[in-house]
Amino acid sequence: MGCVQAQLAQGESGTVDVVVHELPPLVHDVEAVADQARRLLRTPLLLAYAGDAAQDEAPLQFALDPVQLAGWLHIIPQPSASGGISLTLQVDEAAWLLMPNPLAASLARRATHVSILIRLIRPPGA
Q1: What pLDDT, in 10s, does the model give residues 71-104?
Q2: Can you list the alpha helix ranges (DSSP code H) found in the chain?
Q3: Cβ-contact 111, 97 below 8 angstroms
Q4: Whose CA is closest to 33, among 81, 83, 85?
Q5: What DSSP state is assigned to residue 122?
Q6: Which residues pair with 88 in a beta bridge?
Q7: Could you give the CA distance from residue 123 to residue 78 in angstroms, rounded to a whole number?
Q8: What is the pTM (predicted TM-score) of this model?
């Protein structure tokens, strides 16, 4: 930078040699995590409520909005064994754990204990 400043201070045109140090990229592959997110978002995610036989309730299913799910996805960089960075896809656990509360309200129930089994249901031909 000093060479450039000296050249400018002289008010003359000239040549300044620039040394370039190439660094290898820290993140080598973003496609794997992007494909994982795409697959997750295009697959319907259904939540099942078994119903309460004592209350004569039928089982219900709730579809999770892909836009809402997309807001819960985070790409997390982690150091790799090769010294670079690998990317992993994670779901916001706090948002996921709060999600059943509105469903419980729609069932006129209190969410006292929630256990969720995630089952990705692929549409026919997918």
Answers
A1: 989 999 988 887 788 888 888 888 877 777 776 6
A2: 2-10, 31-42, 66-72, 93-98, 100-106
A3: no
A4: 85
A5: P
A6: 76
A7: 33
A8: 0.55
